[in-house]
Design brief:
The structure is a single chain. This protein has helices spanning 3-66, 72-136, 140-145, 150-223, 227-255, 289-293, 295-298, 330-333, and strands spanning 281-283, 306-309, 315-317, 322-329, 341-346, 351-361, 368-369, 374-378, 388-395, 399-401, 409-410, 417-418, 421-423, 429-430. It is α+β, with helices and mostly antiparallel strands and 440 residues long. The strands form 3 sheets. Strands 1, 2, 3, 4, 5, 6, 7, 8, 9 and 14 form a 10-stranded antiparallel beta sheet that branches. Strands 10-13 form a two-stranded antiparallel ribbon. Residues 1-10 and 295-300 have low confidence and may be disordered.
């Protein structure tokens, strides 16, 4: 074989050797850091399981304390257990943020590795192409005559074959690296999106914790930490609630016209999703035994929605896509006697949904939301005998907001103007269970 041919095959071989040697060293360093990250994630997951177990215990404490909500000690227990649960939520969220950051670092390493690999392979491919061009630019006669004997010629043919094989392998590796790079970058975008969501959730949880703290301070200040004062306060709230509901019925009666039955969506399971991740119904729709036996609570007129058990700070989701008609807080104008913080959504399927007794609202008037999107966090605002979510379903044509899509409502009981959803047409309250997914 002539000197030029030997030089060509030697340089290609040397390049391939150096390429794979560098790649191996890079892979070793990368693998060591990835293993370290995985170990850290595993440790965080174990810690997360412990925190979630603690939160489960706090939920039980809240549920137990809720049965004693008519006592000051029970109310304080509920608030204290809620505080512990929210603090646990904060720790969970911080843990998830840490884990997500580790996943972002892992993906950054993967992306860096693949970009380095692509650079190496492009160089290798270019070098192989150049060497093959130098060989193939010679005529067959020139190649044959350049050898001392026929055996050397066949050796060069075999070397050329190996060069072509290396070329194919390099191209295949490039395709694989490119596909992996696209996948890793997609995963990275998803992780970064999760990170933004988690940081938002952490901010919300800290805000709810502050609300919880103020709620306890307000309760102790109003009752002077005396059971008798608390019972008197409860009695006063109940009296005002009864009077407000009677007054509101009169107001609605003046507004009501007959609802066109054709505008009421037929009962169909699955038109709405559950507004909570974990579903426990504590009060059903209509003239339920509780509503009948407790006319002082529902005035014998039935329950206009369903109540779902939920510790304060639980995410409440939009039951379907739609537009936020409005949001409000009845406690601002008349504390402790109505819906508290509420959100009303109109859906394109002819239904509207109300979410009440929220601790924090995360939606705004006119906003478009998707099914399952967080619109707030559950709480104990308004007139509530324990933390829960009140969920009402209306025929969209039969509901308005006082002062917005219905006449303004000036309450004699509260001495203030209230903004809240009101029924504008008869038979506009619908049974949520006729439209929600069946819980297995």
């Amino acid at each position: 074989m002539n000197f030029q041919m030997k030089k060509t095959f030697f340089s290609v071989g040397a390049f391939i050797f150096v390429f794979f040697a560098c790649a191996s060293l890079y892979d070793y360093a990368h693998a060591a850091r990835v293993d370290e990250i995985k170990s850290n994630i595993e440790a965080r997951n174990k810690e997360l399981s412990k925190i979630e177990e603690e939160i489960s215990g706090y939920k039980k404490e809240i549920q137990k304390a809720g049965t004693e909500i008519n006592t000051l000690s029970g109310a304080i227990k509920t608030i204290d257990s809620s505080r512990k649960k929210i603090e646990g939520d904060i720790r969970v969220t911080e843990n998830k943020i840490g884990t997500t950051n580790l996943n972002v670092e892992r993906l950054s390493l993967e992306i860096g590795r693949k970009e380095e690999g692509i650079t190496f392979n492009l160089s290798a491919t270019g070098n192989i192409l150049r060497q093959m061009y130098e060989i193939e630019s010679q005529s067959l006669a020139e190649i044959v005559l350049s050898y001392d004997n026929i055996a050397d010629f066949w050796d060069s043919i075999e070397n050329l074959g190996r060069l072509q094989t290396s070329m194919s392998a390099s191209l295949a590796e490039l395709r694989s690296l490119k596909d992996g790079l696209v996948e890793n970058k997609g995963d990275m975008e998803q992780e970064l999106g999760s990170l933004v969501t988690l940081k938002g959730s952490l901010s919300d949880k800290k805000q709810i914790a502050e609300i919880n703290k103020k709620e306890k301070e307000k309760l102790l200040k109003q009752t002077k930490n005396k059971e008798a004062e608390y019972k008197e306060q409860l009695a006063d709230r109940l009296k005002k609630k009864e009077a407000l509901e009677a007054e509101l019925r009169e107001f609605e009666a003046e507004l009501k016209t007959v609802l066109d039955p054709s505008l009421v969506p037929g009962a169909q399971e699955g038109m709405l999703r559950w507004p909570l991740r974990d579903v426990t119904i504590t009060q059903y729709f209509g003239n339920t035994p509780f509503a009948t036996q407790n006319p002082q609570v529902y005035n014998g007129k039935g329950h206009n929605g369903i109540d779902l058990s939920a510790p304060p700070g639980t995410e409440a989701f939009a039951a379907a896509s739609g537009m936020i008609v409005d949001t409000g807080d009845t406690d601002v104008a008349c504390w402790g006697v109505s819906y508290g913080k509420w959100v009303l959504i109109e859906h394109p399927n002819g239904l509207s949904t109300l979410y009440a007794h929220l601790s924090l609202i995360k939606a705004s008037k006119g906003q478009t939301v998707s099914a399952g999107e967080t619109i707030g966090y559950t709480g104990n605002t308004g007139y509530s005998t324990g933390p829960h979510l009140h969920f009402t379903v209306f025929a969209s044509d039969a509901v308005g907001v006082a002062g917005l899509s219905a006449p303004a409502y000036k309450s004699r009981v509260c001495g203030t103007e209230l903004k809240l959803p009101v029924l504008t047409k008869q038979n506009g309250y619908l049974n949520p269970l006729s439209y929600l997914q069946i819980v297995e």
